[in-house]
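FW: tagging you since you asked about this chain on Friday. Here's the raw sequence from the shared folder, copied in full. Didn't touch anything.
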Amino acid sequence: MQKNKGFTLIELLIVISIIGLLSSVVLVGLGSFRSRGRDARRVTDIRAVQNMLELYFTSQNTYPTGVSGWTGAGSLTEALTGASIGVSSVPNDPLIPGAGVDYQYGVAANGLNYTLGATLEDGANPVLNNDVDANPSNGLNCTDPLYCVEF
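HL: got it, structure written out here
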């Protein structure tokens, strides 16, 4: 009598389907961790840009005015990287970098106050309890889920 060693086709299909089911459950569960990670990066990026703006203010005695948007010609990125203050790049939103989902910048007409904003994916993120929610005079409407800092 000959003994066959190995698995039958049915056994292999059952194992593959179980692995597929388990991996889909894990991937769905990780989705919220990813969005929380991107939100944490957004908050960190906003704080990094605050430091860049303070370097700019120290050099120019004003915050960048007359900028149009976050990236591109005449933008905040161009103003900060072209000011010879040691800034080589300005962070973009981690979800779709450079695809129009950028952070927001508003500045007072006198160039002495500014507001930075980033839209968070989690509208119940606890960090939204400690941000600026009023409509600042700098032109940004900072209602949640827009995380804003103002100086």
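FW: Strands lie at 104-107, 114-119, 146-150.
HL: agreed, and The chain has one domain: 15-150.
FW: great, closing this out.
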